[in-house]
Amino acid sequence: MPSASCDTLLGDIEDIVSHEDSKPQDRHFVRKDVVPKVRRRNTQKYLQEEENSPPSDSTIPGIQKIWIRTWGCSHNNSDGEYMAGQLAAYGYKITENASDADLWLLNSCTVKNPAEDHFRNSIKKAQEENKKIVLAGCVPQAQPRQDYLKGLSIIGVQQIDRVVEVVEETIKGHSVRLLGQKKDNGRRLGGARLDLPKIRKNPLIEIISVNTGCLNACTYCKTKHARGNLASYPIDELVDRAKQSFQEGVCEIWLTSEDTGAYGRDIGTNLPTLLWKLVEVIPEGAMLRLGMTNPPYILEHLEEMAKILNHPRVYAFLHIPVQSASDSVLMEMKREYCVADFKRVVDFLKEKVPGITIATDIICGFPGETDQDFQETVKLVEEYKFPSLFINQFYPRPGTPAAKMEQVPAQVKKQRTKDLSRVFHSYSPYNHKIGERQQVLVTEESFDSKFYVAHNRFYEQVLVPKNPAFMGKMVEVDICESGKHFMKGQPVSDAKVYTPSISKPLAKGEVSGLTKDFRNGLGSSGSHTSAASQCDSASSRMVLPMPRLHQDCALRMSVGLALLALLFAFFVKVYN
To answer: I need a labelling partner for 445 at 20 to 30 A (CA). Which of 147, 176, 391, 490 fits?
Structure first.
């Protein structure tokens, strides 16, 4: 939002000077008779005011500390990493200490009520602590006019490449909202460029969004209101992003989107075609993990998907949400498949990809779900014994068709959620694997900091001893213990530790994508102008081209200054 000083545009020189104003030579002669008056300054009061007042550069953008909080899916986490990278490249300091930050960037999730409640509470806390606030993610994109969002800056899910502009204006005290869609000749694009700077939460893992939005219209889904219809990135851009990631020491790639299986249907291609291109550039020992795919869009590619999931550099893992085992409930959800379709996909993949891990989601207490409907879902879980199962109590999201349906009583929803959770915890999926020797890729530290976390060929979690030499490496272990969600592995004493990365990983918090090409050409597309970026060696921060929000203001100020210069030259010439 331009400042008030730019609101008035000069129409004519006479708007500035009238015949009643003093002339330059008059002001010159009068100046001789001016005697400055000396005022005694209260030194103590002056020093106190100087100590209490903010430093003169406190409102200069690019020097503040920013705390970023992200809720939700891996797609949202990728967006958060991109926003952090751009802000850090511009000079802002990304901090993990919320109280120490000048501005909070809150990246929200709209899937369930609790996630939005956490988001709303964080906004309230930021306001209580007088923090500057920028909101991002699916909540403000889907419902920007909610009362608790009034007066706050918002950056839309397709506008994350302009986060620097929004933060800059917010720090200056303005409220900015960028919620538009990116289009090319009328066709909706997947979103911001994939080659933007980012700060990976885990330097060993790259999250790549292959598309945004989906082709479905599920009656319970609020995310559709934010992410919209399917829009896929071109294959060559995705492959280039994967190559860059491996060159920066990444050893594991996650493909993500609202529906990975629908990839390419809007641009004349498909998911298997993309995957075959990607496996060509994956270094030996590095791994690729596929994201969530709905049953309808994988049915026609089952043969090819089985071949890809058998590839040694692709995890034999697939997340296929079923949501309910009742066809009548699925129809009310508008899921566009029946339980038989889901079973066909799972049965085929389990036969063709031995040992594959199938993860799924289930919603308990969807409107209209009867006891019989729920029991069908229980039977499905008992039959397949999914090792990874996400059980969700139904929450009606505002503005969705399901919110207007007759609701299942809250107590019934809670009880069904507990009952299904009890069934899930009644079996142990990994007991039979004790004694096996497995190759595992170590990528992170456990929450309790006691172990390193690795994954085997089937993306099953294996905890290994905290040996720094293992991090980012492929290690051979003997499985010695198992739990509900993990196994423990003992490294084989004489086994070789294999390094899959083709280069050293970036340090934690280091900005990805600050290549020579980026420094020389940032802004040739996207949110900035085509002027080359420069690196200010004195301050070690990227000096980016002027953001769009300032360009109109700057132009109008330049015109005003030019007119003033002409005016001054005119009067000097006349009166001399």
So the answer is: 391
Residue 115 belongs to a domain with what CATH number?
3.40.50.12160
- Which residues, listed in sequence order, are joined to residue 361 by a DSSP beta bridge? 390
Name the E strands within 446-509: 452-455, 461-464, 474-482, 487-491
Residues in the chain: 576
**Residue 75: strand pairing partners:** none
DSSP for 330-390, written as a single string: HHHHT-S--HHHHHHHHHHHHHHSTT-EEEEEEEES-TT--HHHHHHHHHHHHHH--SEEE
What's the pLDDT at 542?
Answer: 34
Helix (H, G, I), strand (E, B) or coil at 407: coil
> What does the alpha-carbon distance between residue 478 and residue 339 come to, in Å, rounded to a whole number?
38
Average confidence (pLDDT) over 107-131: 94
Give the per-residue pLDDT at 62. 83
The contacts of residue 20 (CB under 8 Å, 6+ apart) are: none
Q: Which of 445, 463, 491 is the last residue of a domain?
A: 491
Whether residue 532 contacts residue 544, with contact meaning beta carbons closer than 8 Å, is answered with no
- pTM equals 0.79
Residue 136: strand pairing partners: 107
Instruction: Read off the amino acid at residue 198.
Output: K
Label residue 570 by pLDDT band (50, 70, 90): low
Query: How far is it, in rounded angstroms, from Cα 119 to Cα 126?
Result: 11
Pick the closest to residue 454 from 439, 469, 468 (CA basis).
Answer: 439
For residues 523, 524, 529 and 535, what is the CA-based torsion angle, rounded to 10 degrees?
Answer: 40
The single-letter DSSP state of residue 198 is: B
Residues 6+ apart with CB under 8 A from 561: none
Burial letters 3-13, b for 16+ CB under 10 A, else e: eeeeeeeeeee
Q: Is residue 487 part of a domain?
A: yes
Predicted local distance difference test score (pLDDT) of residue 560: 59
In this predicted structure, the answer to whether residue 116 has a pLDDT above a threshold of 90 is yes
Give pairs for 524-528: CB < 8 Å, separation 24+: 525/193, 526/161, 526/192, 526/193, 526/196, 527/159, 527/161, 527/162, 527/164, 527/165
**Do the domain assignments include residue 159?**
yes
Domain that includes residue 102, residue range: 61-180
Residue 40 lies in a domain: no
pLDDT in tens, 33-58: 545 555 555 555 544 544 554 444 45
User: SS3 of 350, please?
Assistant: helix
SS3 state of residue 244: helix
pLDDT tens profile 523-553: 443 333 322 232 332 233 333 334 444 444 4
In a domain, 387, yes or no: no
CATH of the domain at 470: 2.40.50.140
Are 342 and 362 in contact, with CB atoms under 8 Å apart?
A: no
